[in-house]
UniProtKB/TrEMBL annotation, chain A:
InterPro entries membership: PRTase-like, PRTase_dom, PyrR, PyrR_bifunctional
UniProt region (Disordered), positions on chain: 1-25
Protein's job: Also displays a weak uracil phosphoribosyltransferase activity which is not physiologically significant.
Descriptive protein name: Bifunctional protein PyrR
Protein's organism: Kribbella pratensis
Automatic annotation (TrEMBL), chain B:
Highest taxon in the source lineage: Bacteria
UniProt family annotation: Belongs to the aspartate/ornithine carbamoyltransferase superfamily. ATCase family.
This protein's name: Aspartate carbamoyltransferase
Gene: pyrB
Pathway annotation from the record: Pyrimidine metabolism; UMP biosynthesis via de novo pathway; (S)-dihydroorotate from bicarbonate: step 2/3
Binding residue positions for carbamoyl phosphate: R54, T55, R104, H134, Q137, G262, P263
Keyword set includes Transferase: yes
EC numbers for this chain: 2.1.3.2
Keyword Transferase: yes
Originating species: Kribbella pratensis
């Protein structure tokens, strides 16, 4: 679903009614993404080997924003795409079938490149495990790195992020929601007290 | 969705979901590894009581690309030729643990019976039953048209030929009208079903009048094996009035495309020039068929059965 389509659904774009507090506002998110862009360039000594792949849905606009910042700093565009991991999830047989999101691999592929996966929240690590499996079917990157806007802890797999916007210690009953202008009309990271049913990890 | 038995069962949202999912599945064809793990450990049985090449191979390729185990079961060479009943066959499949059954049968309603009788718990996909329906063919036709024409809302689609014996026509009329297209069926009066007035489409006997107002033309195969009566005087007369040749194709709007569900009778309902022209998307339909069947199998079989039954 494109951001434009999503904007037509008011039930998605409305802010949650439950009690939630804002932990990052728009300028915090902007600064975090700028820092991540610089860290990616520093670690990889430039933009040459880098391919950014956002994980739908909110990882995709985040990847595009990081890409725009790298372009502004280096004057060189970075191949940017999206990687849907739905069919590689370990709970695929346990939940009702889900629709697929768009996968868009840059034309030059990922072989020999440094793939930076971009997602909004790092929680159990299961999404990233699925993403690693999905990458294996597409090609053989030289290295895979992970950038997330929020790391909220509670890992269930041996996975860590290379670039973190903000470490956010949370309890398991709390819910972290990332709002991005592309989907929700505002930039914000919110923590709500109680996880509703069907929580997105 | 638990089964796919009729194009009429699909709501507009469900149909769009299948088409959107197929769009993602189709991009798999460009990858070095054409395999997805979505149906790992699931068993799909291709239960074909009638001859078929492209549909069976298409379902087989689709299931294999999703990592399902595929068992092919055709009437010839099986106990069915010894007179086993549909019920006993279903019980056998259930005992073997089939998660999905793709069924083609010469009798209309056989897949419906399999799905609703309680003989087996797996999902049933109708791969063509008698002269009734062929929903995955309609989905792949809609998918192919959508790729060329964009949204089907308000598009004028003409279906020409042997509507009476065609499960493809019925499924297409139902699905395309669900998707908002304006469908016109063109056929000789003898090959129009009696309940035609209840179909959500217009009817015409004059192909030439409809041609300039068509965004897509779908030619149906003249099904001689189902014809036990004289429906038209001669093949030549049929071709002259209802066949698509070069001259008729020239009357179509510039962007219009030509479809055929195959197998074609070249020289009868469609001339070789048209079939091989740049407007013909007949080969593309086959490619898209695999993507559509992957989408259908994925959406029917990838989830847990328990949750599905609760929400259904």
């Amino acid at each position: 679903m494109s951001p434009a389509q999503r904007a037509e659904h008011p039930e998605i774009s409305q802010p949650p009614k439950r009690s939630s507090r804002e932990v990052l506002d728009a300028s915090d998110i902007s600064r975090a993404l700028t820092r991540i862009a610089h860290e990616i360039l520093e670690r990889n000594r430039g933009a040459d080997p880098v391919v950014l792949l956002g994980i739908p849905s909110r990882g995709v606009p985040l990847a595009q924003r990081v890409s725009a910042r790298i372009q502004a700093v280096e004057g060189q565009s970075v191949p940017t795409g999206s990687l849907d991991v739905t069919m590689y999830r370990d709970d695929i047989g346990l939940k009702p079938p889900r629709g697929l999101e768009h996968t868009d691999i840059p034309a030059d592929g990922i072989d020999g490149k440094v793939v930076v996966l971009v997602d909004d929240v790092l929680f159990s690590g299961r999404t990233i495990r699925a993403a690693l499996d999905a990458l294996g079917d597409i090609g053989r990157p030289r290295a895979v790195q992970l950038a997330v806007l929020v790391d909220r802890g509670h890992r269930e797999l041996p996975i860590r992020a290379d670039y973190v916007g903000k470490n956010l210690p949370t309890s398991l009953v709390e819910r972290v929601t990332v709002h991005l202008t592309e989907f929700d009309g505002e930039d914000a990271v919110l923590i709500a007290d109680k996880a509703p049913t069907g929580v997105k990890a | 969705m638990k089964h796919l038995l009729s194009a009429a069962d699909l709501s507009r949202d469900e149909a769009q979901l299948i088409l959107d999912t197929a769009e993602e599945m189709r991009s798999l064809a460009d990858r070095p590894i054409k395999k997805l793990p979505a149906l790992r450990g699931r068993t799909v049985v291709n239960l074909f009581f009638e001859d078929s090449t492209r549909t069976r191979i298409s379902f087989e390729a689709a299931a294999k690309r999703l990592s399902a185990d595929v068992i092919n079961f055709s009437a010839k060479g099986s106990s069915l030729s010894k007179g086993e009943s549909l019920k006993d066959t279903a019980l056998t499949l259930q005992a073997m643990g089939a998660d999905g059954v793709v069924c083609r049968h010469g009798s209309s309603g056989a897949p419906h019976l399999l799905a609703k009788s309680g003989w087996m718990t797996g999902s049933v996909v109708n791969a063509g039953d008698g002269t009734h329906e062929h929903p995955t063919q309609a989905l792949l036709d809609a998918f192919t048209m959508r790729r060329h024409l964009g949204s089907l809302e308000g598009r004028r689609i003409t279906i020409v030929g042997d509507v009476l014996h065609s499960r493809v026509a019925r499924s297409n009329v139902l699905l395309l009208s669900t998707l908002g297209a304006e469908v016109t069926v063109v056929a000789p009066p003898t090959l129009v079903p009696v309940d035609m007035s209840r179909w959500p489409c217009a009817t015409s006997y004059d192909f030439d009048a409809v041609l300039p107002k068509s965004d897509a033309v779908m030619m149906l195969r003249v099904q001689r094996e189902r014809m036990n009566d004289a429906f038209f005087p001669s093949a030549r007369e049929y071709t002259r009035r209802y066949g698509l040749d070069k001259n008729r194709m020239a009357q179509l709007p510039d962007e219009a495309i030509v479809l055929h569900p195959g197998p074609m009778n070249r020289g009868m309902e469609i001339s070789a020039e048209v079939a091989d022209s740049t407007r013909s998307v007949i080969v593309e339909q086959v490619t898209n068929g695999v993507a559509i069947r992957m989408a259908v199998l994925y959406l029917l079989l990838s989830g847990s059965n328990e949750t599905e039954e609760q929400t259904a």
